[in-house]
DNA sequence: CGACTCCTACTACAATTTGTAGTGTAAGGA
DNA sequence: TCCTTACACTACAAATTGTAGTAGGAGTCG
């Protein structure tokens, strides 16, 4: 399950998926249980306008092809669920992106980090400072 | 000039552009002067296999549409040059991405930053520590 | 058993992005 | 006037994402 892009537009799952894909993943991840296409379709319908069953199926099966969803064939209707938890997914993306960012921009990124952290949540600055200390201590 | 994606694959300009677009931007940014399509095409030909003039033109004009290149109509052949310097471009992307990363992942990103910095270049850790101190002092 | 419902597979189309390239036109020089 | 050449316009292909029709098969109900 290799993501292609991190999108500048949107937020949350929309950074990684198309709009419909994101909504579907959202639903799957919000449900502890495995779900059928119908389940997902009905949840979608509650939120927005009616979605064609086949549309939902196609997108879900594409997500299976991409390795994001797992499909278990059951008698009447197949069960789908994410391959990894949302937390694990975000963890992976965060790690990958952070590494890429630093590889790509090096000290340029460092400069912006401090500003960005301060802007988003100054508490994160202390957290970061703490992490650095720990890292250095371990050597 | 709003970029769409940061690609996980590739490196450098390939993170932001298609392969040919990236090569073209590379050439434009490496040349202090404005260049014609022909200039760019010939540079490309030196590096790789022959490129059709029209192909280069189409891609360059698309880059103009995207606001990445500027086109100045001259008598016989138009002059093209990047709207911003490579440094300014990288600066903008770095800033944008860092902010997005932190908005999206918050403290998750903080954790990975330290590891990533240590992995790529431990010297960056000191730099970061320094920056944090400065930021805090100013308050 | 036969008819019906409903899930699934297969297929197809549209828009967008990126690479590729042909054709036609117009402008400038010989 | 004719020719070269740059440019505009147009088109097509592959990939990505959203959308949806059709057909077949499997279970259900009478």
From TrEMBL, chains A, B:
Checking Pfam families in the record gives: Penicillinase_R
- Keywords noted in UniProt: DNA-binding, Transcription, Transcription regulation
Highest taxon in the source lineage: Bacteria
In alphabetical order, the GO MF annotations are: DNA binding
Name its GO BP terms in alphabetical order.
negative regulation of DNA-templated transcription
- Coiled-coil stretches noted in the UniProt entry, renumbered to this chain: none
Q: Does the keyword Transcription regulation apply?
A: yes
Q: Does the keyword DNA-binding apply?
A: yes
Which family does the entry's similarity section mention? Belongs to the BlaI transcriptional regulatory family.
Protein name in the entry: BlaI/MecI/CopY family transcriptional regulator
Look up and give the organism this protein is from.
Answer: Paenibacillus silvestris
